[in-house]
Amino acid sequence: MPYVGNEPTSNFVSVTKDLFSGDGSTVAFTLSKASTTNGVAVFVENVRQEPTIAYAVSGTTLTFTAAPVTSSGNNIYVLHHNAPASTANHPAAQSLTAVNGTFTGNIDVDGTTDLDGLTSSTDVKLLKGDSSAISQYFQNSSTGSSATNGVQVALGSGEDFQIWNYSNTDFTLATNNTERFKVKNDGDVIIASSTGIGGVTPTNLLTVSAGVNSYVSRFNNTVGSGNVFMHLWRMTTAPDDTTSMFLVCDDGDGTTSRMKINSEGDILTHDGSAVASLSDERIKQDITDANSQWDDIKAIKVRNFKRKDDVRQYGDKAKVQLGVIAQEIEKTSPKLVKENPPDVGDILSSDEFGTLEDDTDSPIYYEDGDTIPNGKKVGDVKGYNKKVKEQKTTVKSVIYSILYMKAIKALQEAMTRIETLEAKVKALEDA
Q1: Per residue in 132-166, pLDDT tens?
Q2: CA-to-CA distance for 47 and 381, rounded, in angstroms?
Q3: Which domains does the chain possess?
Q4: What is the pLDDT of residues 93-135, one digit of tens each?
Q5: Nearest residue to 170 via CA among 161, 181, 160, 154
Q6: Are 326 and 397 in contact (CB under 8 A)?
Q7: 297, containing H or E segment
Q8: Neighbours of 342 (CB within 10 A)
């Protein structure tokens, strides 16, 4: 009778038969292949034996409960029940249904494949994109840009790794069943961590981009040869005015600003006290009157000048400032001068401070109004900001808070001298 249907070439093979001769004393015989008690049919003198009662099979050993009778020929034969051959190939273009399975090699999936039953409420799909998209997706039942729910993880045609949440919900990362990081559906980022973001010594921790304008907050970031815990940096713009802010500290419901640092560098406070230091007598000791500051203050030269970084930005319109020169102050009051590592602006003002290199972590983007080369568009990278490559020397700064105290002491001395002269003049007038 011919086989009905598609016949697999290696799925059905001949039944294996083992032959043995009994000698009246041997109970164990070796089979040609491993099996089980119910996996073989055993015949003695053409009489089929009952499994587990007359015999048992373990691996390739057939053991009888009583030795078969003596025979001059093969009076024992064993038929192996064949399972489907392990080399059988599933016919092409036909559905395969199985309860479960184990795969020891790679699984290639082409097209759109549904994997039901991963959770009680989701239908996850694996989609293999074409060579131009090179995309891999783990996605809910909605697909493509028109999807309204589910999550899509994609590796784009470039090197971008993208996570899309199509539903109007937050995206949350958690460890040990505790929320650690959340991107809310309105774009706010919430971090819950006792150690901050990025480990012990992270750099470029948080970058927030609004269009082509980028704002960077750096923690434990190296600047020159030193270290700064927090660095607020407006990368692509320099408004240098009183309306744009680096930092705003609000109280209550956000309607009262207690302190501001504007982009011009001014520090503005709610009660007018720009700098306040603890000065309680109970936290001080060895209190004595200060020495005369008359000569030190008298030796100070007050200068007009322009900062070179202002000139780079504004040219002739750079504002004229009033102040002192650290090297001149150092001659009479060296303790008023401190040394600081140079930043990028300092080195641009004088190469005596060190050298610079491109900061590839801080790109500069093309914006509307720029002259954009062919093949480029707004938002593409056109260059990089600079960072300190080598520090040659330090930048001198003046401790103005102590200078002000010296000036107050000198003013008090001047007032005493004036009052003495007034007393002498009055005495002469009354004489």
Answers
A1: 433 444 444 444 444 555 666 665 555 566 777 76
A2: 88
A3: 17-80 (no CATH), 238-288 (no CATH), 292-341+395-431 (1.10.10.10)
A4: 677 777 777 777 766 666 655 555 544 334 444 444 444 433 4
A5: 181
A6: yes
A7: helix 294-299
A8: 24
